[in-house]
Amino acid sequence: MLSVLALVVGLAIGSFLNVVIHRLPRMMERDWQAQCAELRGEPVPQKERYNLVVPRSACPHCGHRIGALENIPVLSYLMLRGRCSGCGARISLRYPVVELLTGVATAYAAWRYGLSWAGLGAMVFLWAMIALTFIDADTQLLPDAITLPLLWLGLLLNLNGTFVDLHSAVIGAVSGYLVLWSVYWLFKLATGKEGMGFGDFKLLAAIGAWLGWKMLPLVILLSSLVGAAVGIVLIVLAKRGREVPMPFGPYLAAAGVIALFWGETLVSRYLDVLY
Asked: How far apart are the C-alpha atoms of 246 and 258, rounded to whole Å?
């Protein structure tokens, strides 16, 4: 029953994550434009309120306001047959995918940890990873509004050793940031180019704060392997140029989720094979 309830809650959270994924980068862009205007000594343009709540969700093609019956996770997409009821424009498949992914992941966290701080923490971790994955895939941005609170929340949860002891969590946060920071500067000194963004440092620091420093090698290895494999496929099959930047955040996020649920099992099996 807890897993079923978590599935329903997760579907609703997934619907909200679709709003976060779409609007948060645009909110950041509006803030940057206002800051740039202020630095140039220009009057800051007054725009309509735009945040995660206002304005109401609407079709980007015709402006049709989405009603309550059109906003039921997954079911509304199926009933509308993937099209806007106002103009018939196709609705992106991403919306039900994010909702379903969030629902299933939330249900699994509830089944795995039960009604506990670890269960609630795992849900929040999953929601953040899903939002960051799709935002980074779209914009190559990992917003501080998600990564930094996630880092501090991980440390707070581990005050009582929810996932790891506080000592491991603090070292994990520091090590996670410094590892990719070092890679960034080594690559830049060697090539004169930036190999990754600062958001990647903060994301790995947050993962380290949640899972501890011992999981960082596994997270880095998994994310690098998956990222390399996907990059090769895109270059070979999609004819994507090597100079086209590829976001690293989705692979870090996926590796973090794997480490959260199955990290200890993977590490112990690797050590058994090795020794």
From this structure: 21
- pLDDT tens column, 131-148: 999 999 999 999 999 999
CB atoms within 10 A of CB 183: 15
- Chain centroid offset of residue 13 CA: 14
Collapse the DSSP code of 186 into the 3-class scheme (helix H, G, I; strand E, B; otherwise coil) and give the result.
helix
Q: When comparing pLDDT for 62 and 128, which is higher? A: 128
Dist. CA 150–CA 137, nearest whole Å: 19
> Quick one: which of 232, 275, 233, 224 has its CA closest to 254?
224
The distance of Cα 69 from the centroid of its chain, to the nearest Å, equals 28
Tell me, letter by letter, the H, E, C secondary structure of 75-110: HHHHHCCCECCCCCCECCCHHHHHHHHHHHHHHHHH
Question: Taking CA 207 as the corner, what is the angle to CA 128 and CA 183, rounded to the nearest 5 degrees?
Answer: 120
- Distance, in Å, from the CA atom of 272 to the CA atom of 275, rounded to the nearest integer, reads 5
Which own/partner contact pairs does 132-135 have at CB distance under 8 Å and 24+ positions apart? 132/203, 132/249, 132/250, 132/253, 133/249, 133/250, 133/253, 133/254, 134/17, 134/21, 134/94, 134/98, 135/20, 135/21, 135/24, 135/25, 135/249
Query: How far, in Å, CA of 100 to CA of 106, rounded?
Result: 10
Name which of 212, 220, 193 is nearest 264 in CA terms: 212
